[in-house]
Design a protein that fits this description.
The protein is of the alpha/beta class. Strand 1 and strand 2 form a beta hairpin. The longest helix is centred in the first third of the chain and has 22 residues. It has two domains: about 140 residues, Enolase-like, N-terminal domain (Enolase-like, domain 1), CATH 3.30.390; about 260 residues, TIM Barrel (Alpha-Beta Barrel), CATH 3.20.20. It contains 18 helices and twelve strands.
């Protein structure tokens, strides 16, 4: 029986970051990214053991208003400074589990974030994103202190049952940002992708946004409606929608869905992720499509509120909002039989493996018969082939999607997706003598 109660004291911390350029401006939430900072956090415990954790910063995902108020580099610098501040707090905070550590430092990090950004209504997702590298380092340090070498035994007992499934396959959600040519989407379907994630909520006023989104669905459906896949029961491809909270009113979403019915796409819509702003409390129980909470799920209380409003799935984002928070939401979902999926943040290859560990162990998503996750780094990073080389599991078969799925052999579970294997590239950042 693993002892999950012994206290860990961090005595030394450090951090670093690399800027990774994108192939083309990446659009969502009405804005565009041109690069993503990869932040790296190191922790050393009193025992002498140390660990390095990674994160991909996405200021646009974390707080779109803050992103718009600064240069892209300026927003990234603020988030990185908050990570560094949080690492200082860790040295003053003994912990028994990483979940315990996050609970202890979160109020102070939130207060510091508001001061550093000058934004009293700073979105909690900005805070969580700043804590991902720290949280991942804490998990690896925790595992090292307890001599745990696989993902399942690393999980404290209260969270193990929620992540006790072992999927053979994970469906890969193929992301379609605003500007992607339709021919590229068609090629993806020809390669075997069968869950097409369409970014809605395009720039402009609400009427302009709606018109653009309807036109976009029309052109995508026209290109894909006759394509077939062996991965679904009726052979048709699935579409998912992600507005990242851009639809201000339910009425606008209903008009979009009416359009989907008109063009014959409605029965292929698997779900809609976070259509409304977090403060929108309209019920979605009657919209005719499964609606999943994403940005608005910032704690268990927020998750319960969304369930009361008719939401019927949760998006887990261990790579955007910490593994620690995702475990809490996964446990709540398990207790209430709410399906979960894992959505991306355009993360680096090592973080893809962290997220595979979550998606692989969730119950199969309804209608799919397998786990489901989004990953889009390979189609967005200019230096993706180089970044793959930083990953000790970069050559593994389960690192590459085949016919729209990650095939998970026993090797994946034996190696826990490679997350316990140190990366020479990221480790070397802290050898500065």
């Amino acid at each position: 029986m693993t002892d999950h109660t012994t206290t860990i004291q961090v005595v030394q911390t450090d951090s670093y970051f690399e800027r990774e350029k994108l192939i083309r401006p990446f659009g969502f939430k009405g804005g565009y990214l041109t690069e993503l900072w990869q932040t790296v956090a190191q922790m050393e415990a009193a025992s002498g053991k140390s660990a390095v954790g990674l994160a991909t910063q996405s200021v646009l995902y974390g707080d779109a208003d803050l992103f718009a108020a600064h240069t892209e580099s300026g927003g990234n610098a603020l988030m990185y400074a908050l990570t560094d501040k949080a690492l200082q707090l860790v040295k003053k905070t003994p912990f028994s589990t990483p979940v315990d550590l996050l609970d202890k430092i979160l109020p102070s990090v939130m207060a510091a974030g508001k001061i550093m950004t000058g934004k009293q209504d700073l979105n909690p997702n900005f805070i969580y994103n700043a804590l991902v590298s720290l949280d991942n380092a804490a998990w690896l340090l925790y595992a090292a202190e307890r001599q745990l070498q696989d993902f399942e035994t690393m999980l404290p007992q209260p969270y193990q049952q929620a992540l006790s499934y072992r999927n053979d396959k994970i469906a890969v959600m193929y992301q379609v940002p605003y500007g992607m040519p339709v021919e590229e989407i068609r090629q993806a379907a020809q390669q075997g992708y069968f869950v097409i994630k369409i970014k809605t909520g395009q720039p402009g006023t609400q009427p302009e946004m709606l018109q653009k989104d309807m036109d976009r669905l029309t052109e995508i459906h026209r290109a894909l409606q006759d394509m077939r896949t062996p991965q679904t029961q009726d052979g048709k491809l699935f579409y998912t929608l992600d507005a990242n909270g851009r639809y201000e009113k339910k009425e606008t979403l209903l008009r979009f869905l009416d359009h989907a019915k008109k063009i014959g796409a409605m029965n292929q819509l698997l779900l809609a992720e976070e259509p409304f702003p977090e403060e929108n409390e309209e019920s979605v129980a009657d919209v005719g499509i499964r609606v999943a909470g994403d940005e608005s799920i910032t704690d268990e209380k927020a998750a319960l509120r969304r369930l009361e409003q008719g939401y019927s799935a949760f998006v887990l984002k261990g790579i955007a909002k910490t593994l620690s928070l995702s475990l809490k939401i996964a446990r709540l979902a398990h207790e209430r039989n709410v399906p979960c999926l894992c959505a991306d943040l355009t993360v680096n290859p090592i973080l893809v493996n962290w997220h595979q560990n979550l998606a692989a162990r969730l119950p199969p998503f309804p209608g799919l018969g397998m786990g489901m996750m989004e990953t889009n780094g390979d189609m967005n990073y200019r230096n993706w082939p180089t970044m793959i080389q930083y990953n000790p599991a970069g050559d593994a078969s389960w690192m590459r999607a085949s016919k729209g799925v990650f095939d998970l052999q026993q090797d994946f579970y034996q190696r826990s997706g490679g997350i316990f294997e140190p990366s020479a590239h990221y480790q070397a950042m802290f050898n500065r003598s």
